[in-house]
Amino acid sequence: MIRSTFTLQRNLSVLQKKQENTSANVANVNTYGYKTQQIVQKTDPEYQLHNYTNGPENNKRHNIGGFIFGNKVDEIVKDMSSGTFKSTNKKSDHAILGEGYFNVQLPTGETGYTKNGHFQVNENNHLVTQEGYVVLSQAGNPIDVREENPQFRLTRFNDQGDLLALGETVFTATTPGVTDTESKVRSSMLEGSNVNIVDEMTTLMDTARQFEINQKALHTSDEIIRKLTNEIGRGY
Length: 236
Hints:
Elements: H1 2-27, E1 37-43, E2 46-54, E3 60-68, E4 71-78, E5 85-87, E6 94-97, E7 101-105, E8 111-114, E9 120-121, E10 127-128, E11 134-135, E12 154-156, E13 163-166, E14 170-173, E15 178-179, E16 184-187, E17 189-191, H2 197-230
Antiparallel strand pairs: 1-4, 2-3, 5-17, 6-16, 7-8, 7-11, 7-12, 8-14, 9-10, 12-15, 13-14
Helix pairs in contact: 1-2
């Protein structure tokens, strides 16, 4: 029964992470350039259990069978597909039509990548992200908002799954990308998040039901342990 408590505790831990992930997706449904993410869980390998209760003297090996100790988080997968596009009245807003990412200068000196073109203007009239990261031109310089046709540096990646999230909409790359000359940038337009709110609410309700099932199983396990320790022991 102690093993069952351990297994249920691990299941509840996975469910908590799934609930936190779903809540983050829902909270960013209106965040421009946000990419939804899903938690993939993995079942532990099966272990063969045994004891020594076989034979006339209860001292021979008895194979009980297989037991799985629970589930765990295997990986977090981001859906890098495009969100919906909408027109705006701001000249500083930009959207990428294609697979490219805007390049931004991070405080560490590294290059960051984002689909969130909801840019701001700093005191130098340069386009910056909402975090304050300077947006880079093809020449690697800051982009002046007063330019009529700014030339953004765009990068695309063969495997977008290699991108690492830095905040909600900015990424760093573990594998270098290549210069993107095919994607087009449109001003006064923004790419929204790709969160499907119906799917997220369905996932949230399913997670809540799984919480309830595991809590009931945990209560049953606790009751059996209580009987073993408080009632059966009285006969000896």
